Amino acid sequence: MALLILSVLYLGTSCVAQNSTNPYIDPKDDPNNPLKYIASNSLTAVAISIVLTTALIHTFWCFRYRTKWMLALVVGEYCYAIGFGFRFALHYHPDSRGIYISEYLFIVLSPCAFIAADYILLGRIAKFLACGEYVPLPLNKVTLVFVLSDIFTFLMQAAGGSLSISQNANVAISGSHIFLAGLVLQLASFLVFFSIFVRFLYKIYTLRPDIWTRDQTRHWFWDWRTLAGALTVSSIGILVRSGYRVAELSYGYQGFLATTEAYFYLLDTLPLVIANLVYIPCWPGRFILNEYECGRCQLRY
What we know:
- Keywords: Membrane, Signal, Transmembrane, Transmembrane helix.
- The protein has helices at 2-14, 41-65, 71-92, 97-109, 111-129, 139-164, 169-207, 209-212, 224-251, 261-277, 284-287; strands at 290-293, 296-299.
- By secondary structure, the chain is mainly α.
- It has a two-stranded antiparallel ribbon with strand order 1-2.
- The chain starts with a helix and ends with a strand.
């Protein structure tokens, strides 16, 4: 995967010598430039460095703690890094429709994997604490329901994105509407999930103080509430990003949100980077070192 990312970077930077001169002084006036700005290589380099480093560390944690159930997060991070790799190519070929489409789909769709990882983590925490009764759905279904909703909204966004690049204006408009609907449904689904998670923590805090405080004598590094806090931070980051994407598409592909690079990094990249970075010191597999048998958990210290 790392070699694939490096290949993308190489292709994006090595083929610029033959690039023709852009006749438009201001990229906002260039009708062939979908971004309406020239992607900053400096910001792209910072972003891809952080995302790729996070992915590599999470890959190590996955093998170290045998947490295959967090692979969705890791795979999503590598795909996200590939998206930034395409932004290097866009810097030199801002009018390339193919590069733009590849960049946009990788950047916009990869976070679906981050969302799926958070969905899975709630079920794992509930089983670990043996507090499944505080989740409104059976634990063997709660993860399935939300992951399926994530897959459904992912497919809607992928289909809408594919249609929105059509040369036919009516098809493109329909595609953008489908894409926006997928984003809205994804945001709504995650809001429901986050509400369930907050309710879950509140129930434990008020009804099961023995479980809430069971790790209070241990270092924060091993306190399950630290993991719950990490999931909270990750969820907030995803909510900020999802809200931005809905607002961005509501204004259209040529709206001020979509055509201003600062908004992309401030409201999309930064929240997602934080949402993933938080799992470096708070990797779930370090807190949940248990095996499940017939719905009961046995913690190995």
